[in-house]
Amino acid sequence: MPESLNVSIYEDIEKLGLKAPDIAVPHTPSYGQCAEDIIVCASLRALAFKEQLDLSKEFYLEIGANHPIATSATWLLHKSLGMHGVLVEANPHLLDDLKRVRPHDNILHAAVIATDASTTPIFISSKDELSSTNKKFLAEWPGEPIVLEEDIVVPALRINDVIIKHMDGKSPLFLSIDVEGEDLTILNDLDLTRFRPAIIQIEPSDHFLENNSRDICDLMQRNTYDLIARTNVNLIFTDSARSPVSREIVADLHATKEALGAAEQENQRLLKRFSELNKHALSSS
After folding, report:
1. Burial class (CB within 10 angstroms; exposed 0-12, middle 13-18, buried 19+) of 121
2. Do the strands 148-157 and 111-112 form a parallel or antiparallel pair, or are they unpaired?
3. Name one GO cellular component term (predicted).
4. CA pair distance 113, 240, nearest whole angstrom
């Protein structure tokens, strides 16, 4: 099959009556919803060049995999960079195609949630891309009407457990979260003092959660991630803490988190002791 041309360029050239370029401009493959995978792919290549990484030995984690190719956040990364990883999908009707087309990846049937429950309901939409653990997300979808076809109970996992149990505790180089309305909840549950993907892509769904993009950006900024791209659908962040100076900041954040945890435990111990002494004083009076 001959290499296809960049349709956008040649359509505008014809529309404006311009001469075609002497050197043909080929089409650049993209499978992401708004070509986010091209941005991510280029960013990973830059990172690999800077840090001397072999990307074929690096991993991605895609939460809310859906279709194996269409709107996939990771298909281009596998095809172009040789990466592989873990794809998490809650809708059981989509698993066969994922396993058939993506045998190089570990396909997990689960919904990622932010509690320790072993199962959770999922609401299956008439449009596969819009199924969600949040029923309200389907009901308030602003586009073409969708139908709730079924609600079922599926296995549930927390994001940190996915990394620990299915990625040997090694942080993925790239993380994509696309779970229709619950994305920030999942991101909040990720222990960024322990697991730090170099690049994180997340869908804010501002139509459903007003100012969610701002809330996500605030969270990422507090954890030393920089916003590098914003498409019509997704936000893309890079870890600024990969520099030596920033690594010290992350280490300080981790130490602070541990200190706060210890202080909270001591505070609870003192409150309990105070309550015991107070009861004893009252009973003696």
Report:
1. middle
2. parallel
3. cytoplasm
4. 27
- Kindly give, in sequence order, each residue whose CB lies less than 8 Å from that of residue 70, ignoring residues fewer than 6 positions away: 31
Do the strands 225-230 and 59-63 form a parallel or antiparallel pair, or are they unpaired?
Answer: unpaired
What is residue 186's DSSP assignment? Answer: H
Q: Where are the domains positioned within the chain?
A: 31-242
Q: Which of 200, 205, 187 is nearest to 237 (CA)?
A: 200
> In 10 A of CB 193, how many CB atoms?
15
31-242: CATH superfamily: Vaccinia Virus protein VP39 (3.40.50.150)
Per-position pLDDT tens, the chain of length 285: 346 999 999 999 999 999 999 999 999 999 999 999 999 999 999 999 999 999 999 999 999 999 999 999 999 999 999 999 999 999 999 999 999 999 999 999 999 999 999 999 988 888 878 888 777 777 777 877 777 778 999 999 999 999 999 999 999 999 999 998 889 999 999 999 999 999 999 999 888 888 999 999 999 999 999 999 999 999 999 999 887 655 566 566 667 777 777 788 888 887 787 777 777 666 766
Query: What is the Cα–Cα distance from 82 to 77, expressed in whole angstroms?
Result: 7
Which residue has 């007003």 as its token pair? 210
